[in-house]
Amino acid sequence: xxxxxxxxxxxESVLDPQGTAVKKSLDxxxxxxxxxxxxxxxxELTLEKTERKIEEVVEEMCERLLSNPVIEDYRYExxxxxxx
Length: 84
Description:
Helices cover 30% and strands 31% of the residues. By secondary structure, the chain is α+β, with helices and mostly antiparallel strands. Strands 2-1-3 form a three-stranded antiparallel beta sheet, covered by helices on one side. The longest helix is centred in the last third of the chain and has 13 residues, at 54-66. It is elongated.
């Protein structure tokens, strides 16, 4: 089994209105030193081993469903789980 951590963020060229709102709120709350805020998504997947390479499967899932490749970037980490 594999545990996969997927991080999805807006591309740098895409405006992030939610991040902008959070930055303004932080400034209002007394945190003027925050220069930028970008909001993203974090997902954890548990996958069983298959005949396909795990990287291939994760890439396919990210491209087809977990991210919008037009406006978002993604990265992932794969950990192999030991079943006792």
